[in-house]
Amino acid sequence: MTVTANMLSLKGIVKIFNAGTQDEKHALDGVDLDVSAGDFITIIGSNGAGKSTLLNVIAGTYTPDEGQVIIDGADLTRAPDYKMASYISRVFQSPTMGTAGDMTIEENLCMAELRGRVRSLKWGVTHQRRRHYREILKVLDLGLEDRLKQSVGLLSGGQRQSLTLLMATLTLPKLLLLDEHTAALDPRTAEKVITLTNQMVAENNITTLMVTHNMSQALQYGNRMIMLHQGGIQLDVQGAEKQGLTIQEVINQFGTTLKDETLLACRPEIP
User: Fold this and answer.
1) What region, left, alpha or beta, does residue 230 occupy, with left being phi > 0 and alpha being psi -120 to 50 degrees?
2) β-sheet bridge partners, residue 33
3) Exposed, middle or buried by CB within 10 Å (0-12, 13-18, 19+), for 102?
4) Are β-strands 6-17 and 25-36 bridged in parallel, bridged antiparallel, or unpaired?
5) How many other C-beta atoms lie within 10 A of the C-beta of residue 12?
6) pLDDT for 160-191, tens place per residue?
7) To which H or E segment does residue 109 belong?
8) SS3 letters for 167-224?
9) Which residues, other chains included, contact 59 with Cβ-Cβ below 8 Å and sequence gap of 6+?
10) Burial (Cβ within 10 Å: 0-12, 13-18, ≥19) of residue 155
């Protein structure tokens, strides 16, 4: 795949928590990262390495103390998260965070379709939208196309996370952020969701950043992988170099420079 334009550029990103106190923490320490349009980047690192903080800065949930966040050529460093809805979709670890449990499947899809747009009194589910939702739900192969009026709160964790992923890509975002979105699922369901993720990202050429603690996932999926440690990027591999890596090679290469907790956090999950 040949890409020429950066969809995302992070320039000197610094994020400090509890500045000036004994609990001061440099979560991100001068991070520079250019992400090409169409990149699918997996992100690994130990707890506290800065992975979720990085996604929160990109999404506008956190404002960086220093640096710039540029998305598709626009400087959005100070843009609040609600204004980022027209640029970014995000799927969290918990299946409950991306959907409204007391609303129906079709209502959730309608909200996702209108994300970032001005809603009028006619924003509700129309017959045309309902037909469209039935068609796109067939992709999940979960039978949800026949349950449009069912409350999302009655779905299983895997069904709900699959629906969240579909909602996140319903109107193609500039960036898709996946924050350990399979970690709360059982191994079999997690495999189905990650396979669906890979399919949807590839078919729509969505620029994607996926945080994962599963080293097998990190190496198998995406065209690029970065490792965060102590708020900085310690590893950045892509293409043939990434495809040729094994888990043991990563451990051998970085075992002397990274803490044991990093390696432990990145071990493959056991089914």
Assistant:
1) left
2) 10
3) exposed
4) antiparallel
5) 13
6) 999 999 999 988 899 999 999 999 888 888 89
7) helix 105-113
8) HHCCCCCCEEEEECCCCCCCHHHHHHHHHHHHHHHHHHCCCEEEECCCHHHHHHCCCE
9) 81, 84, 88, 90, 177
10) buried
Question: Does residue 145 form part of some domain?
Answer: no
Evaluate whether residue 123 is within a structural domain.
no
Parent domain of 217:
6-87+173-265
Report yes or no on 147 lying in a domain: no
Alpha-carbon gap, residue 256 to 258, rounded angstroms: 6
For residue 187, give the CATH number of its domain.
Answer: 3.40.50.300
For 121, residues 6+ apart whose C-beta sits below 8 A from its C-beta are: none
DSSP for 131-180 reads HHHHHHHGGGTSSGGG-TTSBGGGS-HHHHHHHHHHHHTTS--SEEEEES
Cα(first)–Cα(last) distance of the chain, in Å?
32
Rounded distance between C-alpha atoms, residue 82 and residue 71, angstroms? 15
Q: Is 176 within 8 Å of 167 (Cβ atoms)? A: no
Read off the pLDDT band of 141 (50, 70, 90). Answer: confident
- Quote the number of domains for the chain: 1
Kindly state whether residue 211 falls inside one of the protein's structural domains. yes
For residue 248, pLDDT over 90 is answered with no
